[in-house]
Amino acid sequence: MDTQLTALMINCTLKPSPAESSSDVLGRQILSALAGHGVGVDSIRAVDHDIRPGVETDMGDGDEWPALRERVLDADIIVFMTPTWLGQHSSVAQRVLERLDAELSETDDEGRPILFDKVAIAGVVGNEDGAHHITGILYQSLSDVGFTIPAQGCVYWNGEAMQGTDYKDLPRTPDTVAQTTSTAAANAVHLAELLHERRYPSS
Length: 203
Fold this sequence. Notes:
Elements: E1 6-11, H1 22-35, E2 40-45, H2 65-74, E3 77-85, E4 88-89, H3 91-100, E5 119-126, H4 131-144, E6 154-158, H5 175-197
Helix pairs in contact: 1-5
């Protein structure tokens, strides 16, 4: 393929920069795996921006989502990262999903939803259970607004229950996480290339 694919990580940690974030560590590992396939990579830490509540593309009054939205629209692959809190995705992740809801009414020149032909990978970290539940929510939400999910398109890590170890504190990447990251990245690139060459049909 002549055109380089691009990937954007949206990190929905609750920790503003420059605080260390387990979501950021795992997300950058996914981006590194994508870069290994020749994909150009970029990232956003959503909590660093004033993303106003709402379900419109622009909520006005200093809303920073419109500029972030342009970066989403420019990317072929989205890596959507969230930590686990109380067994749920973060409030920041929910805010981003709500803003993506606006894309349901946005269409391209052929009348297709504007996020068609884009691929999404989900990433979940936490020192408590909840990854499967959160993945189900992310898959449904991201698919609803137009993203396509590759086979085995989620990378997650759950720490031991009732303990305090975070992913960022691990001395090495667990083999299962590394293998899942490699598979998710390869499948996402494969799917993105196919969609780039042959787009979804218009209704």
